[in-house]
């Protein structure tokens, strides 16, 4: 009895309390989960497994986008060594674009872009504010369509964005 209990305790301690489920896009909640919910953590784990990439490499940076949060819906990643994403809509909160010399090109408190094509050498942030990920940096993207993606503390190097329509709020530019 003691041996059985000891084996059970050892086995339980060997399994992490929070195991990553792997890339199971079909198990994502159907809508963007509420912040702080169990669904948000589950979605973050699934997307992290799909998007996990090698650490960033040094590249020459011409411009850099920094944003508090970016939410995309109906995402189709493109093939290639840069981040290439087509998305139905992109919501951006508190974004700044700077040149390589640190000069601010513009700042926008919030933006809504529709029918968007985004490319960048790299894109990094925290999935749903929880799990750090870096995409791109010369490594091929994983071509998995995603219903949504929310990143916080976002940084994108050499970013280029085209959109059919854009609604910008509180824009400061130079």
Features:
single chain, 174 residues, alpha+beta, seven-stranded antiparallel β-sheet, signal
Question: In short, what is this structure?
Answer:
With 174 residues, the protein is of the alpha+beta class. 16% of the residues lie in helices and 50% in strands. Keywords: Signal.
Uncertain spans? 1-20, 53-57
Strand-residue proportion: over 45%
| Gyration radius, rounded | 19 Å
Question: Distance between termini?
Answer: 74 Å
Total strand segments: 7
Look at the structure and give the mean pLDDT: 76
| Helix count from the secondary structure assignment | 2
Order of strands, main sheet, comes to: 5-4-6-1-2-3-7
Note down, in words, how this protein is organized:
There is one protein chain. With 174 residues, the protein is an alpha+beta fold. Helices cover 16% and strands 50% of the residues. The protein is built from two helices and seven strands. The chain has helices at residues 2-14, 38-51, and strands at 63-77, 83-99, 104-120, 122-127, 131-136, 146-157, 160-173. A hairpin with a 4-residue loop joins strand 2 (83-99) and strand 3 (104-120). It is globular. The termini are far apart. Mean pLDDT is 76; it is low at 1-20 and 53-57. Residues 1-19 form the signal peptide. Keywords: Signal.
């Amino acid at each position: 009895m003691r041996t059985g209990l000891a084996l059970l305790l050892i086995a339980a301690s060997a399994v992490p309390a929070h195991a990553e489920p792997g890339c199971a896009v079909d198990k994502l909640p159907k809508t963007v989960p509420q912040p702080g919910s169990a669904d948000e953590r589950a979605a973050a784990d699934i997307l992290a497994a799909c998007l996990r990439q090698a650490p960033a490499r040094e590249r020459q940076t011409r411009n850099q986008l920094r944003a508090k949060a970016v939410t995309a819906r109906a995402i189709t990643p493109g093939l290639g060594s840069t981040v290439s994403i087509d998305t139905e809509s992109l919501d951006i909160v508190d974004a700044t674009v700077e040149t390589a010399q640190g000069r601010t090109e513009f700042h926008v408190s919030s933006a809504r872009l529709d029918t968007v094509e985004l490319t960048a050498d790299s894109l990094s942030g925290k999935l749903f504010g929880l799990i750090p990920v870096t995409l791109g940096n010369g490594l091929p993207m994983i071509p998995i369509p995603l219903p949504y993606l929310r990143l916080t503390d976002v940084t994108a190097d050499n970013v280029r964005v085209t959109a059919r329509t854009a609604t910008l709020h509180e824009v400061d530019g130079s």
